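the two lines:
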Amino acid sequence: MAKTLATYDRYAADFERLRHGGPDWLRELRSSAFDRFQQLGFPVARKGNEAWKYTDARPFAAEAFGYAQPQPTRRTTAVRLNQLLPFDDGFARIAVIDGRFAPEFSTGLGFYGLEAMSLMQAIDKEPRIVKGHLAKHAAWQGDAFTALNTAFIHDGVFIHATHLIEQPVHIVYVSAGNETAVTHPRTLVVAAPLSQITFIETYLSIGDRRHFTNGVTEVAVEDGATVEHYRLLIENQEAYHVGGTRVRLGRDSSYSSLSYEAGAGLARHDLGVLLAEPGCSATINGLYITSGDQHIDNMINIDHAAPHTTSRLYYKGILDDRSRAVFGGTVFVRAGADKTDAHQEDKNLLLSREAEVDSKPALEIYADDVKAGHGATAGAIADEALFYMRSRGLDEDTAMQFLVRGFAAEIIDRVSIDPLREWLEEQALAALPRFRPQEVVA
Amino acid sequence: MAKSSKNGTKPALLEVRNLYVSVAENEILAGLDLTVHEGEVHAIMGPNGSGKSTLANVIAGKPGYKVTAGEVLFEGRNVLAMTPDLRARAGIFLALQYPIELPGIRNREFLRTAVDAIRESRGEEKLAIREFNKLLEAKAKTLGFDADMLKRNVNEGFSGGEKKRNEVLQLAVLDPKLAVLDETDSGLDIDALKVVSDGVNAFRAPDKAIVLVTHYQRILNYITPDFVHVLIGGRIVRSGGRELALELESRGYDWLREETVGASAE
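prediction for all of em together
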């Protein structure tokens, strides 16, 4: 237990050092959130704790991650970023490296109808909007990770769309540090009424050192707005990652998200979508690919709080080696949310006998006149399909690659940004060591 | 079978000798012999459950069958020791009775990879994309495929007839030496049957052979066989020419079954 105490002491020391700065309301918010984090502590598996039933949260508490130190910007970082993100082909980009806004890697943000800047800048420039939304969607009172992130709100990303923005906005959170550090990425996206925006959040590591990313993203989709959200998790295999995404949908608005998760050794994503006003709709897609000893957990809550709302949730997973995935999806239809139309599904392809998935889709319905369905499957490659392909001359490995790619395609085909879709088509296979070309040892 | 000797010293394209096959301890094939030479079309007929599909599947190497005795030779090589893809590269093609849907895999890309794999094994250069597309589109056109079907996922959402046509398109593009067609005629209406038969007839050549597994003689009106074999109880009980199929059509299989049972009782 001494180690765990050291962990909390380390967070407390960093908090004391960093608690100042910003307006009064922000300082108070940080303090309250840190107090709450200390009260809650990291989650532990115990009876009744359904949210952490299948994912062991002990590793988060076991290691004393220090607040990431600013690194001198290296020219190699820019080169590396371009190598790692080849699909980012002239997108508007805003980068945060080791927790600090990095203007030198941020480009193309001067669009009419778009404000994209660091969160600290936004607090000065758009105080009313920031104060109206920040920590209003991501409740930190009941969740230790969100509380911890909120306690460490400093640099982050603020996106505010007021018109139709055609260019995708790419938010890149990089962990490039050399030491075992924690970052708390914080993103606030506000789509004003009738605006339209597409944004990509990418979380990546440069280097193989363990780091801990504890991110929170809040998305406010105001009346009649349309938001398309991509979330790419491609951190290294040592990394720990916890992400909380909270989305609120206004009247007749529409939100679609596509999550691609191949990175981080231990990852958890909590996605909460609140269909708050009549006529709004959400399409939630995801693809997780795990190998080695990876563990990826998706906990999704779709909350239908108003009538005439629609949600479609479709996740797929590909698991190899001894890896493990967890899918917990709940569609919640509140009393009065009549004419809700909801469907959720999770399908898994297991490439190894040792891989395991715990998939728990659930419906909770308290309204009348609701159309809702759910399903979950897990299975191996079908022998029949493999034989069919081999009977056409494809060797086993090539046939497997086709089948795996084909399985992933159902999600990847939904990506509307061409270079991103093409990149993901390659990544889906490259993420699995079994399909990587063997390195030739000279 | 005077015709069988026409190839002189060349080994038979396909030679099945005394083949015994079981599935989950049930003996399906019980001492089957079949010799197929280049240029020949053999029809294998028989009632349901007689082992027709088993024969086709064992030739192509489908898992799930246990060969307990006998051998299958292709150009003199032992096929049973080869994986399904090696058999395909050697020149064996099986048109499946129930073609498999492959979600997320595009027809065009699948076929191009298959053609590349087979050409590579023959020591031939890969086809340039443009050449491949030309070949594919020409073959597709003769089978009444529109370009849209080549873009779609393999067999996904295809009608029964479209799936069978897709099998024959694969046959045309992959250009094997031996085509084993497992009930490619079943479930086809008369127009689709004509299109599929035209595709198979286009494949016929002096250096190719066809083993046509069918329940009905209807397709033999369009694809004229050189030999007709009747499979009952896991072995070939009668062989003949085209006229045997017509006799089966008018008399059914029962008379042969009775003769066979009678013969084995002696």
